[in-house]
Amino acid sequence: IYHITLTRVQRREQTDGFVAVVRDVTEQERLNQARREFVSNVSHELRTPLTSVKSYIEALRDLGDDEKDTRDNFLQVIAQETDRMVRLTRDLLQLSGLDRGQTYNLHQSIGLTDLLLQVQQRFQLQAERQGLEFSVVAPDDDDVFIVGNRDMVNRILDNLLSNAMKYTPAKGHVSVSTRVFRDRVIVSVKDDGIGIPKDDLPRVFERFYRVDKGRSRRLGGTGLGLALAREMVERMDGTIAITSEPEQGTQVSVTFVRDEGVEKAR
Ligand code: ADP
After folding, report:
1. How confident is residue 143, by pLDDT bands cut at 50, 70 and 90?
2. Does residue 115 have its Cβ closer than 6 Å to ligand 1?
3. pLDDT grade, residue 265 (50/70/90)?
4. 194-250 residue pLDDT tens
5. Strands 145-148 and 249-258
6. Which residue, 239, 256, 240, is CA-closest to 148?
7. 193 lines ligand 1 (CB under 6 A)
């Protein structure tokens, strides 16, 4: 897409010629388009739960005093939808912080063993409730550190684990494993759940992209988890990769930068 500005070059009353300035605005147009799509997605994502909350509130008003079970049911839906809006706005704020180039301390030294222990504690209960087998394998070496922002690292792992648990039916397996490779630490989250079709796989890191919108919504997803994870990983000079096979499962591997300075100093 080009914008052309034509200017007449004039001396006294006489036209000497024309100057044409041609600007390539393809990139700018692409960004505008992406922004329009994003705003439209956000509006839609918020309107859906709001509409549902509103209709449940109206239905509550019409309930008789003896319909306690139905009332509890409706209130639960309202609470769930509200939770999802809270998560959505939290994710949106985080994305917007990253977009605006907000500064984060990216030089924290994070001990891998402790990090994984905390992850295990955060997800153990959910795994049990869902009837999933859940394991976290920490490295043999107690003294492995990664460099980055602690909150970001936790958010990334939480997003990956909550996906693994969301998209894996009961009796399935979810595991976290780590590998140290030269100056990198690779953390992999693996599940044997529903998997992702080949055609969708390249797009799952896009904002709001979901393989199955209905399923993601039902399970409380915002469609921003992987997009956020990727942005945060890149901020910390890491990489993120996903492999998946429908009906077989999914593995997401994140590479963090190893903090060898701290390791040596200890
Ligand atoms: P959501 O909030 O919908 O889970 P994400 O950005 O975290 O959003 O993931 C995008 C989509 O990728 C999901 O809607 C789902 O279709 C797919 N996905 C992500 N992780 C997994 C997984 N472990 N197993 C199967 N599908 C997954």
Report:
1. confident
2. no
3. low
4. 999 999 999 999 999 999 988 888 888 899 999 999 999 999 999 999 999 999 999
5. antiparallel
6. 256
7. yes
Is the distance from CB of 238 to CB of 256 less than 8 angstroms? yes
- In the reported structure, the alpha carbon of residue 41 is separated from the centroid of ligand 1 by a whole-number distance in angstroms of 17
Distance 163 CA to ligand 1 centre (A): 6
Q: Please report, as a single letter, which amino acid is at residue 232.
A: M
The mean predicted confidence, pLDDT, of the chain is: 93
Which residue matches tokens 């901020």? 235
Residue pLDDT, tens place only, 29-50: 888 888 899 999 999 999 999 9
User: Given the CA of residue 159, which atom of ligand 1 is nearest to it?
Assistant: 7
Q: Is the CB of 164 under 6 A from ligand 1?
A: yes
Name which of 237, 79, 95, 219 is nearest 155 in CA terms. Answer: 95
Cα-to-centroid distance, 140 and ligand 1 (Å) = 31
The pair of structure tokens assigned to 58 is 């109206």
User: Using CB atoms within 10 A of its CB, is residue 18 exposed (0-12), middle (13-18) or buried (19+)?
Assistant: exposed
pTM greater than 0.95: no
Assess whether the C-beta atom of 167 lies below 6 angstroms from ligand 1.
yes
Q: Among 30-39, 83-92, 153-162, which is the least confidently predicted range?
A: 30-39
Residue position matching structure tokens 């894996």 = 168
Task: Give 227: exposed, middle or buried? Use CB within 10 Å, 0-12, 13-18, 19+.
Answer: buried
Interface predicted TM-score (ipTM): 0.98
